[in-house]
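for the recovery benchmark. C-alpha cells below, seq after
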C-alpha cells in the first residue's frame, strides 16, 4: 500500500465561546462531506489523535453549556459503541470487542438509554 499523499481533505471545527470562555456554539464542516451544505451545528465533540512520536493520545472534549445530562449519556453511549466496533475492525479481537460491547450495554441500561435486558 502506497504512503504517498494523493489528495487532502480539511475538517474545520469552530467553537463559539461566551465571556467566560465556555462553549456556547460548536460547528464543524468538511469540504467533502456529501451530507451537508456548510457548517453543521453540534452540542459536543470528542476528538482524539494518536501522536506518531510519543505514542500518546491527544484529545479535545468540548460540549456546549446547553448540553443536557441525558444528551451526554446518549452521546457517550453511542461513542462507546462506535469505539468497540472500531476496535474490532482494527484488531479482529472478537473476544475483547465483545467484552467492550457488554460494558456498552451495561452503560446504556444504567443511564436508561436502552431498556434493561
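predicted aa per position
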Amino acid at each position: 500500500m502506497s504512503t504517498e499523499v494523493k489528495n487532502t481533505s480539511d475538517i474545520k471545527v469552530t467553537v463559539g465561546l461566551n465571556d467566560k470562555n465556555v462553549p456556547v456554539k460548536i460547528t464543524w464542516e468538511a469540504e467533502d462531506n456529501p451530507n451537508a451544505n456548510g457548517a453543521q451545528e453540534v452540542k459536543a465533540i470528542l476528538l482524539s489523535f494518536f501522536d506518531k512520536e510519543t505514542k500518546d493520545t491527544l484529545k479535545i472534549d468540548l460540549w456546549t453549556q446547553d448540553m443536557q445530562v441525558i444528551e451526554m449519556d446518549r452521546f457517550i453511549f453511542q461513542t462507546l459503541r462506535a469505539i468497540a466496533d472500531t476496535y474490532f475492525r482494527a484488531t479482529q479481537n472478537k473476544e475483547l470487542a465483545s467484552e467492550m460491547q457488554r460494558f456498552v450495554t451495561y452503560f446504556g441500561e444504567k443511564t436508561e438509554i436502552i431498556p434493561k435486558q
